[in-house]
Amino acid sequence: MVIENFTPVSALIGGGLVGSAAALLMLFNGKIAGISGITKGILAECPTPQERFWRIAFVLGLIVGGFAMVQFLPAATAKVLSLNPIQLAIGGLLVGVGTAMGNGCTSGHGVCGLARRSPRSLASVTTFMGIGFVTMFLLTHVFGVGRF
């Protein structure tokens, strides 16, 4: 198996930026950078307008940053799977259900929880990464879906 476009330097820089952003959010807001929890806080009732504002700004920053990356550095972005909108919607809903069941997402457990040496986060990361590996293997090698 050949890994195309393996770029450890850009991966290291990206990981450093994600970790720095999570640390800065904790430092200045005292909040964990769990995207599902931040998004849930936008949709639920926030205690103050300031609370809702920083959450919306954070999510918009993710969207604008992703859009800018695709526009200005398209070679550095991920390949697109050949999935139809219904498959993408089902996948998104399953991710939402999974983050609700696991009380957090990859950013909350994987970045922040592991950095805090949380046993619950270690169990969550081990579970969702293992299920992700098995799902990707089954989809690509058994069912032939999403071949690059």
Could you explain the architecture of this structure?
The protein is mostly helical and 148 residues long. The protein has one domain (8-142). It contains six helices and no strands. Helix 2 packs across helix 3 (49-72) and helix 5 crosses helix 6 (119-142). The longest helix is centred in the middle third of the chain and has 24 residues, at 49-72. The model has no long low-confidence stretch (mean pLDDT 84).
Descriptors for this entry?
single chain, cell membrane, membrane, mainly alpha, 148 residues, 6 helices
Number of helices: 6
Count structural domains: 1
Would you count the extended β strands for me? 0
Rg result: 17 Å
Judged by helices, strands and strand pairing, the structural class is mainly alpha
Using the alpha-carbon principal axes, give the shape: globular
Low-confidence runs: none
Write the element-wise H/E pattern from the N-terminal end onward: HHHHHH
Pfam family, one: Sulf_transp
Main location: membrane
Transmembrane segments: 12-32, 53-73, 85-102, 122-143
GO cellular component, one term: plasma membrane
Map the helices and strands.
Blueprint: H1 8-29, H2 35-43, H3 49-72, H4 85-101, H5 106-115, H6 119-142
Helix pairs in contact: 2-3, 5-6
Short description:
The chain is mainly α and 148 residues long.
